[in-house]
Amino acid sequence: MANEVRVPTLGESVTEATIGEWLKKPGEPVNLDEPIASLETDKVAVEVPAPVAGVMGEQKVAVGDTVEVGAVIALIEDSSAAGETTQVKPREEAQPANQKAPTAPAPAADEGDHTTTLSPAVRRAVLEHGVDPTQIKGTGKDGRLTKEDVVAAAKAKQAAPAPSASEPAPPAAPESAPKAQGERREERVKMTRMRQTIARRLKGAQEEAALLTTFNDCDMTAVVEAREAYKDLFAKKHGIKLGFMSFFAKAACLALKDVPAANAQIDGDEIVYHDYVDISIAVSAPNGLVVPVVRNADKMSFAEIEQAIAHYGQKAKDGTLTMEDMRGGTFTISNGGVFGSLMSTPIINPPQSAVLGLHRIEDRPVALNGEVVIRPMMYLALSYDHRLIDGREAVTVLRIIKEAIEDPMRMLIDL
Question: Which residue of 28, 53, 232, 336 could cross-link 341, Cys pair, CB 3.0 to 4.6 Å?
Answer without folding.
Answer: 336
